[in-house]
Amino acid sequence: WEGRVNGRPWVGFVASFVSGLIGVPPLLVMGVVAGVVRMNRLSFFVAIVLGRGLQSWAILAGMTSLFE
Asked: What digits encode the pLDDT tens for the residues 25-67?
């Protein structure tokens, strides 16, 4: 991962976003990997917040359609 992320911050951002959105790779693992490769903290935070936010929105949108 270090070789893939170094010099290409978008690779780390996309991997973190996908991890936050669908959980593959596991978010806990991505947190450790981001620390080891010294990923930009703000980029990691934004990717995780966007991913988890979209995941939560999708779950809530699905739940509301069940009760209509």
From this structure: 899 999 998 888 888 999 999 999 999 999 999 999 888 877 7
B/e letters for 51-67, b = 16+ CB within 10 Å, e = fewer, are bbeeeeeeeeeeeeeee
With both helix axes pointing from N to C terminus, report the angle between 41-66 and 9-22 in degrees, rounded to the nearest 10.
30
Residues 6 or more apart whose CB falls under 8 angstroms from that of 48 comprise: 16, 17, 19, 20, 27
Q: What does pTM read for this prediction? A: 0.82
Rounded distance between C-alpha atoms, residue 66 and residue 10, angstroms = 37
